[in-house]
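Re: folding output
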Amino acid sequence: MVEPYKLFYWPSIQGRGEFVRLALEEAGADYVDVARREGGVDLLMAALDVEEYPAFAPPFLKAGELVIGQVANILLYLGEQHGLAPRTDPGRLWVHQLQLTIADLVTEAHDTHHPIASALYYEDQKPEALRRSADFVESRIPKFMAYFARLLSNPEPRDYLTGDKVTYADLSLFQVIEGLRYAFPNAMKKIEQEHPVLASLRDRVAARPNIAAYLASERRIPFNQEGIFRRYPELDQ
């Protein structure tokens, strides 16, 4: 009997752990979301204190004897194990590159509400957040979204970023679109009008059977004001 994966991430937010959850759900993999069980946060903290290959922070995944940290690194592994990445080296590296680009965008989204320090409350850095978000809305979201829209359109329209087969990068782009819709609905409405292929990709991923079942389940944690994507209307100008 194959041991289930063990995902270690905070129990009350989607955060960066959601990118891993989506891949596990799409793959139909057997996994335990450790911290969402009774006493799980204590297990998570203890798992951070291992002597060999310790993760800097959640999320990290235990796969048998392997312990893998960092979202892009976890997805690189899961993509190969579950057919969520191309088989060739150039293809695998390309999808990994796309995931790293998504990671850059996720960091910038987080920094809109915490531009000075993660340890400070949003209210303690609100003027800086307003300035940071103005640039994010005006230039950074459009630049990232135009890039992904181009990949979905050139040289001709395609179902997914690499062609007709879904990869973990598509699942992650779905999550980013969902998160930006939640945090910056005004900005995303305009961008999706300019780039309808983004909404098409989002809808295509959401309709995949395993993903649709997950989104409708209690396993999908709602967006909230503790995660990466937070809704502050004053920042969505």
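--- second protein (sequence, then structure) ---
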Amino acid sequence: MASAGEAREWASAALRGIGDSLYTPFCGVDGDDIDWDAYRTLVRYCVGDLGHQMLWCTSGLAEFWALTISERKRLLEVAIEEGRRLNPHVVVQACTAATSAKDCLELTQHAQQAGADIVYIQTPMMEAHAGEGVLRFFSYIADRTDIALGMFNSPSSGYVLTPVEGARIAEEIPAICATKEGAFRPAASRRLHELAPYLALWECDTTVYRAGWLREGIVCPAQLGTAGYLYETPRRRIFTEYWGLVYADRLIEAMDFARESGLDQFGLDIGSWFTCYPGRADYFTHWAGAFKYAASVLGLPVGDYPHSRPPQAILPDAAKAQIQAAYRKLGLIDA
């Protein structure tokens, strides 16, 4: 774990490889409980069976907005316990986003005490007075903690920081060493890098990697928070192989591999169910029910309540059929 003062030097060396964003498997009536055995299995699968280098805990895919404070703390603790047992060097990233700065602080202090490596704070979901308000929020946390911090710039927050606002926050808070740019704005990410080149930046629009942005130093050699475990199996590690080629700057080979392996086509075949609810098509979501259904298709445990908690909707049968067909076509499940 890096202290706030060591954060930027640490990030440049440690943030590498594939980081898995973990779902939360629910059980019981209306999903009011968590299936801890299923969660432990998921962590072991990502770190042990797939050999992925990082974990991304209690984020949007985990439904942080539907979890209690105590549930979020325990989910992080279990991820650290199981992950470090298999790989003492696995990088554990914790998302401590909350509408209340005090709740975010409690979660961040807990992450520091529990042994997480870095904490990411999503732009507050409500009543954020643009960059000035977000800076106050981050400052409140940074003044009371001693751990590496990252920004999480997601459209699901309702407000996306401009490059100038993000750079100002990073300039005033030395603990901030990384940013997950989730708004699919490559031009803005390039501008943020120009203003704050010391940030380890991940752009969710992964086409920029094919454009040589890693070689230029704009993005870091890591997928900070993907669901990489949904794109490969231990017997066919196509996601790992693809990103290995990208990180080795073998871009033509990487693009050929993505086409020939079916990864590119899979992205089209599976559709937008992971991030789009049709009834609110203009809103970027993390539809946890879709991620968990995909995991179940691959044989991963998702608990006996396989849906998202409210306020997310139940995944429709049409989505399930499309997801299944995409996996069959990719060859990760039997035809």
